[in-house]
Amino acid sequence: MSETDAEGPGASSVVDAQGRLTIPAQIRWEARIDAGTPLVVYVEDGRVVIETREQLSRRARQEVGESWSGETSVVEELLADRRTAAACEEQR
Questions:
Q1: Which parts of 1-92 fold into alpha helices (H)?
Q2: pLDDT at residue 8, as a whole number
Q3: Of the residues 35, 37, 65, 70, which has the fewest C-beta atoms closer than 10 A?
Q4: Is 36 helix (H, G, I), strand (E, B) or coil?
């Protein structure tokens, strides 16, 4: 990230009266955010996080892969869970 002010890395921006925030051009360029790029915005540990859907998807896949410790694949376990739930529903 570029260093553009004395407070540290990044750039400054201000939320306007309508609640909009402009992402400075240098930040958009570094993050590869073009006009029309769909973004996901959420709060994590008190910070506002903005990322593209591709970044979120990639990070989620990586985190699941790193944390998975099952003996079978995630898909196989999900299918087994769904089959169990369906069997329970049929018994009702």
A1: 25-31, 53-67, 74-91
A2: 58
A3: 35
A4: coil
> How many distinct helices (H) and strands (E) make up the chain?
3, 2
CA 26/CA 81 separation, integer angstroms: 46
Taking the mean position of all CA atoms in its chain, how far away is CA 89?
34
- Three-class secondary structure of residue 88 per DSSP: helix
CA distances from 78 to 24, 69, 75, 81, 84 (A): 42, 14, 5, 5, 10
10-residue mean pLDDT profile of the chain (92 residues): values are: 52 94 93 92 94 90 77 82 91 84
3-state secondary structure of 1: coil
| Euclidean distance between CA atoms 69 and 74, whole angstroms | 9
pTM: 0.55
What is the per-residue pLDDT for 23? 93
